C-alpha cells in the first residue's frame, strides 16, 4: 500500500475484517430530525467490538502482518479505544500485544486492555515518555508498532465505516465525523468522496482542542494548545499522513463548546437510549448549534464509540 490509502484499499480492508468486525447499525431519531430540520442517519460504532470504530483499523493492520513479524509481538501506546482495539485484534490473530499506557489512564480502560489479554507497561503521562517506553520495547523485542492513526492500513480500516453507511444510505448529502488524530476522518473522506464525489465531508472538533481546525485553516499542522476537553478521544494532534488526506478531501471543519458536547451526549442517552462517549456528541453539537446548514438535507453522522467512565459522568 502507498502512504495514502485509496478506496481500493478500503474495499480490501472491508473484505479482511468481514466476519471479525461487526457491521454496525444505522439509527434515526425523530427528536434530532425535528431539532435540525434534516434527516440524520447515525452510524453506531458504539456497537462495534471494543465499543469503538478503532477495532476496524487495528484488525485490518494486524491481520496483514507476516507470521514472523506477528510472533515478535505487537505494540502501541494509547490510553483509550486504540489500546483495547490493538489488544483484541492481536489476540484474535494469535499474537502477543504490549500496550504502553500513561500511569493516570482510567482504570476502566486499563482493566479492559488486560481482559483482552495484552501486557501493559505504564509510563509517565507525557508524549515523550510514551514514545521512549515504546521505542525501548521495540529495540528489545522487534515488536511491530501500530500507530493509532498515522498508518495507511489503520486509515483504510477506519474508512470501512463510511463505506457501510453509504451502501445503506446512498443518497446522503453530507457526512460528518469527529476529528482527533484524523484516522477516522481520513478514511471517511476517502471512502465518501470515492463513492459519492459530490458529497460534503465535514469534520467536527471541540473548541478547547481545535488544532485540526487551525491546521485546516493555516494549511500546515498546528500544535495542540490545550487537552482539557471532555471529549478525551479528540485530544490528539493530526499526523503528517492524516493532515494531508484531510487537507485534500475534507470540505470544512467546525468547532463546538464543552457545554454543547455535554448537552448532546445526554440528549442521545435520553432520546435514543444508547450510550455514546463525549467525542461522539461533537458532530451532533455542530449540527444542533447551526455550525452547518443542513436544512432539508440527508446527513450521516459517525458515532465513534461508547466507552464511558460511568463513575465520572459530566451531569452527576
UniProtKB/TrEMBL annotation:
The keyword Nucleotidyltransferase does not apply. Its cofactor is Mn(2+); Ca(2+); Mg(2+); pyridoxal 5'-phosphate. Residues 20-305 form the Tryptophan synthase beta chain-like PALP domain. InterPro entries: Ser/Thr_deHydtase_PyrdxlP-BS, TrpB-like_PALP, TrpB-like_PALP_sf. This is Pyridoxal-phosphate dependent enzyme. Keywords: Magnesium, Pyridoxal phosphate. Pfam families: PALP. The lineage of its organism: Bacteria, Pseudomonadati, Balneolota, Balneolia, Balneolales. It comes from the Bacteria. The keyword Magnesium applies.
Amino acid at each position: 500500500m502507498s502512504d495514502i490509502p485509496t478506496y481500493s484499499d478500503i474495499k480490501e480492508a472491508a473484505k479482511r475484517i468481514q466476519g471479525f468486525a461487526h457491521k454496525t447499525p444505522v439509527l434515526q431519531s425523530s427528536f434530532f430530525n425535528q431539532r435540525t430540520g434534516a434527516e440524520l442517519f447515525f452510524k453506531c460504532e458504539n456497537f462495534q467490538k471494543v465499543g469503538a470504530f478503532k477495532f476496524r483499523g487495528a484488525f485490518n493492520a494486524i491481520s496483514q502482518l507476516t507470521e514472523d513479524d506477528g510472533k515478535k509481538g505487537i505494540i502501541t501506546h494509547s490510553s483509550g479505544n486504540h489500546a483495547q482495539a490493538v489488544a483484541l485484534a492481536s489476540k484474535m490473530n494469535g499474537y502477543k500485544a504490549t500496550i504502553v499506557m500513561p500511569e493516570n489512564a482510567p482504570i476502566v480502560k486499563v482493566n479492559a486492555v488486560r481482559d483482552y489479554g495484552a501486557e501493559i507497561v505504564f509510563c509517565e503521562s507525557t508524549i515523550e515518555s510514551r514514545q521512549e517506553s515504546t521505542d525501548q520495547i521495540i529495540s528489545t523485542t522487534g515488536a511491530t508498532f501500530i500507530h493509532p492513526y498515522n498508518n495507511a492500513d489503520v486509515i483504510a480500516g477506519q474508512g470501512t465505516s463510511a463505506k457501510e453507511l453509504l451502501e445503506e444510505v446512498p443518497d446522503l448529502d453530507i457526512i460528518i465525523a469527529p476529528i482527533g488524530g484524523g484516522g477516522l476522518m481520513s478514511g471517511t473522506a476517502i471512502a465518501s468522496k470515492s463513492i459519492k464525489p459530490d458529497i460534503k465531508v465535514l469534520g467536527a472538533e471541540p473548541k478547547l482542542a481545535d488544532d485540526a481546525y487551525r491546521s485546516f485553516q493555516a494549511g500546515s499542522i498546528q500544535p495542540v494548545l490545550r487537552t482539557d476537553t471532555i471529549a478525551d478521544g479528540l485530544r490528539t494532534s493530526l499526523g503528517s499522513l492524516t493532515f494531508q488526506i484531510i487537507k485534500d478531501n475534507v470540505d470544512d471543519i467546525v468547532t463546538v463548546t464543552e457545554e454543547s458536547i455535554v448537552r448532546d451526549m445526554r440528549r442521545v442517552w435520553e432520546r435514543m437510549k444508547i450510550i455514546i462517549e463525549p467525542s461522539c456528541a461533537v458532530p451532533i453539537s455542530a449540527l444542533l448549534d447551526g455550525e452547518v446548514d443542513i436544512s432539508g438535507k440527508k446527513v450521516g453522522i459517525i458515532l465513534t464509540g461508547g466507552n464511558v467512565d460511568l463513575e465520572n459522568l459530566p451531569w452527576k
